[in-house]
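Batch job 17 of 40 flagged for manual review because the log was empty.
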Amino acid sequence: MQNLIQIDRATNLHKNNSLQLLCFFLEESKGLYAVNVFKIREVIKYSGEISQIEFEDHSLIEGLITIRGLTLPLIDMHKWFHYDPQNPYKNLSPYKIKSKDPDSEVIMICEFSNLTIGIRIYQADRILDKKWTEIQQGINITGGAYNNKIVSHTHYFDGRLVQIVDMEKMLSDIFPWLEQEKDDEFEQLQKIESQKLVLIADDSPTALKNLARILDKLGLRHKGFINGQDLLDYLFSYNTHEIGLIITDLEMPETSGFEVIKQSKADAKTAHIPIIVNSSMSGSSNEELALSLNADAFINKSSPLEIQTTIQRLMK
């Protein structure tokens, strides 16, 4: 029943080209950050044990926590913001979040890309309702250590900047073994014989790059866009008979993936083009959501073999 309620709520938001963001702080009285609420299972105050599994000062994984019998890795988001892949052994301990309450930690329990993890923050604020048209691309607006970790931004009720975190980038940095698994699958890919063009849209540069790499290996022509509106503008100005497939994320500035699906399926010239939702919001409920939006398929973000199999099935 809970899944059905969540699907209903998410579908209504997407139909209105809207989203909900959980705003939070990483330091007292400092900048506001946000994550889409559908990537968050819950926000808790945790006063239990943190089992340390890494002892190096450069480690991004704080340890393991147990929530209702489920053991999860704990990440300190502020430490990740100061992580530099060009200097992976940098001491991150000075950037650990100093808890507001010394007896408990504020932790977001998040689920995406078939992973459930705990993310330490300083303080959760409130949920912000926004139209996707109010979300602006903004990769490098902070610069420095935060460079390329902010995927877009919007504004708070009082006009303050709210920076939306690139969760795909965070996963890639913290769990490099995920990329190794994808590399192992990548080597198994076989070329797909087609001259049709594949259009792809994702606001995460990391996700867009990974998807382009997979399509190159499959031998498919492709064109990428950092939001849904750019994809739609191209789609309706191009020879649609040459387009064999659309792969889109759901969460994108200006125009969401749902709007891409809705407009594409509503136009007689483009209704025949299969659409795959490529999302990090894993789980059966999100697959049901994607299909409820009239997409032709749902895949876990940038899983190479799943992408190959789905393209072979859908692209004629």
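Reviewer: the log was empty due to a logging misconfiguration, but the result itself is present. The chain is about 30% helix and 30% strand. Unflagging and moving on to job 18.
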